[in-house]
Amino acid sequence: MDYKVLYEKTSMAKLFTIVAVPGVISMLVSALYQIIDGAIVGKVLGSAAFAAVNLVMPLVIINFSIADLVGVGSSVPIAIKLGEKDEKTASEIFSSACLLIVGLGTILGGVLFFSAEHLVRLMGADEEIVAMSAQYLRIYSVCSPVTTIMFAVDNYLRICGRVKYSMFLNILLSFVSAGLEIVFLLVFKMGIEGASLSTCIGLLLCVVLAFKPFLRGKMQLRFVKPRFDRTILMSIFANGAPTFLNNIAGRVTSIIINVFLLRLGGATAVSAYGVLMYTDSLVLPILYGLCDSLQPAIGYNYGAQNYSRIWQIERRCFAICGVLSIVMTAIILLLREPIVGIFVKSDDTALIALSVHALSLFVFAYLTRWISLATQSYLSAIGMAGYATIISLSIALVFPLIVLFSLRSLGLDGLWLNLPVASLMAAILAAILLLVHSKQWRRLKENI
Amino acid sequence: MIITISREFGSGGRELGKRLAEILGIAYYDQEIIAGIAQRSGLAEEYVNSIIEKRPVTYYPITIGQTLTAAFTPQLDFSLKAYIEQSNIIKELASKSDCVIIGRGADYILREYNSFNIFVYADMDSRLQRCRQRAPENEQLSDARMKARIKAIDNDRGRYYQFFTNRKWGEKENYTLCINTSKTVIKDIAIPVSGLLKSMSHTLSGK
To answer: In the structure, what pLDDT confidence band is assigned to residue B75 with cuts at 50, 70 and 90?
Structure first.
């Protein structure tokens, strides 16, 4: 691919179509499965199950994130060694990393399995929810040694060039998991265990399929005797840690907010918040997909010192994000009842009323969320990872916690307004950082 | 004879490398490597220049809301691509003929080529002075700013080296010769250093 032509000379419209559209679509596909999952649980199993799932989901994701830390952190040294044609060392790192992930999955799975009930009770849930959450979490815990490795293997496949196979597996995962869930819940009339079982079986199948090429021995990476070298281990953790911490920050916030929701409104409030989170899963991927897919073009032009081109691209990116956000806010406001209806049984009038009210307040976050998101993506693209991390941690952890305590007199409404207010604060922060950055930029242009 | 020069910013390492190449009559590679990387990878030269001696960014969100997405790492991919091309180019150049290569972690890349690795460093004042001498005329940075810039560049180099080689930049075990060029005029030491290299190369070839 001739990046020079693509990033420097192609017309704006063509650049956006080639780069941004695939990015958005791929992100949406991942999110879509999660939403279908949530919808099935909510509609078929009811709001208590829906609340139970939303309560423990952050823990499940933290479990997966630890595997991803190793997966992502090891991808870099593996890619470097393969690039140097040192397949032996690359395979050693690969084997060690896989073993490490399975080991970590076993330990963490064990911890979660035995502490599942206790943790959920600690959050403040009543016994019915505790029982369901524990069941859901326990199945994930038992399977975690062999399922958490999925995204790591996905990464390894792509490093070895099997990009299409990796995409196929990701799509297969969504289909199998959704299909099994429909069968388990609707045909076999299973309870909440059917939801987690279907995802775990889907993951297990895809993990096996993903490892098949490696076991055949025809790939650049093979299973060899693992070697646990201290420096390699440290570099794996150093590479993976920033990603891990960023992801964990958001989950910790979710858990804390869940605790408050339980205290202020019980399981119903948790379910209502769950609806908000699933809506978020539809909106954010679109914005992230757009902005992040433009990162290579921005970074490239920044390095090539084509500053006017960057301005052209970013201007349009921000504009599209802004317009899309306003449109999506309007759509969600107008369609708030049908949207809630996707996740909530139609006879559960109390939950529907609460969710609609919550969504009406929550949706205003999207008027400002795009500002911090686009800025973070842009700063990251031009190499200012420090500023980007500040924004990311602020919106994921710091501001929500500040708002949580500031708005506590508003009770549940304070929780629905949490993201809108935090998002506004983040927008202001982003604007400040952009101003600081543009001063440095001007100085840079004068020094050329 | 293959010579790699790793250096602190402002210590005169590049100048030493150029002079050694002249004296010993061997090739000297610096910008040509960038051009080579640009050509092979399809990236712009200025872009390669901006990413090539920096530690790549390894931060990317993989969870959004309640979902896990595949890690999307375009910038890291570019940095890795550039590094790998650079490795290949440096190895090819070293196989072709004797040469001097400045920076780029060449001492690690050519670890099996029996290269003579030099680390050039100096105290902050000497480096400040050398930077001022070589600075363009309209550049008016205060001493404090200049020092900060020197430290930043060295930090970037150290992190880059550590990231790709897993070794600590500047650690004496990595080099054949470490030379402190504080208060020294590079021109004066170039010939003696080349003589030292020649004598040591006889003993080194037994390595």
So the answer is: low
pLDDT score at B142: 80
> Which of A2, A3, A78 would best serve as a mutation to test chain B binding (most B beta carbons within 10 A)?
A3
Q: CA-CA distance, A264 to A376, in Å (whole number)?
A: 33
Instruction: For residue A72, give the chain B residue with the closest CA.
Output: B71
What phi, psi does B59 have (nearest 5°)? -110, 125
A contacts of B164 (beta carbons < 8 Å): 80
C-alpha distances in Å from residue A76, one per residue of A58, A340, A397, B74: 27, 42, 28, 13
**A117, A156 Cβ separation under 8 angstroms:** no
User: Pick from B13, B47, B9: which is nearest to B158 by CA?
Assistant: B9
Question: Global pTM?
Answer: 0.81
Q: ipTM more than 0.85?
A: no
Residue A404 Cα to chain centre, angstroms: 22
Q: Is A95 helix (H, G, I), strand (E, B) or coil?
A: helix
Q: Express each pLDDT in A155-196 by its tens digit.
A: 888 888 787 888 888 888 888 988 898 899 888 888 888 889
Q: Cβ of B187: how many Cβ atoms within 10 Å? A: 11
Strands B27-29 and B99-102: parallel
Q: How far is it, in rounded angstroms, from Cα B136 to Cα A281?
A: 52
DSSP state of B57: P
The CATH superfamily label for domain B2-190 reads P-loop containing nucleotide triphosphate hydrolases (3.40.50.300)
> How many whole angstroms separate alpha carbon A313 and alpha carbon A308?
9
Q: Which residues of B touch A233 (CB under 8 A)?
A: none
Q: Outline where A84-218 has alpha helix (H).
A: 87-123, 127-147, 150-159, 163-182, 192-216
Candidates B45, B51, B59: best to mutate against A (most CBs of A within 10 A) is B59
Cα–Cα dist A2/B39, whole Å: 10
- Asked if the model's pLDDT at residue A220 lies above 50, the reply is yes
Instruction: List pLDDT tens digits, range A261-286.
Output: 998 888 889 999 999 988 888 888 88
Residues listed for chain B? 207
- Residue B180, phi then psi, degrees to nearest 5: -95, 115
Q: How far apart are the first and last CA of chain A?
A: 29
pLDDT band at A448 (very low <50, low <70, confident <90, very high): very low
Is B52 within 8 Å of B37 (Cβ atoms)? yes
> A329 and chain B: CB distance < 8 Å anywhere?
no
Question: What residues of B are in the A interface, CB distance below 8 Å?
Answer: 41-51, 54, 56-72, 74-76, 78, 80-81, 83-84, 87, 139, 163-164, 166
Sign of CA dihedral A410, A416, A418, A423: negative
pLDDT score recorded for residue B167: 85
Query: Is beta strand B27-29 parallel, antiparallel or unpaired with respect to B63-64?
Result: unpaired
Task: Determine the residue type at A112.
Answer: L
Other C-beta atoms closer than 10 Å to the C-beta of A257 total 21
Give the position of tokens 């100085």.
A443
Residue keyed to tokens 């399929």: A209
Gap from A62 CA to chain B (nearest CA, Å): 10
Query: Tell me, what amino acid is at B160?
Result: Y
CA distance A188 to chain B (A): 26
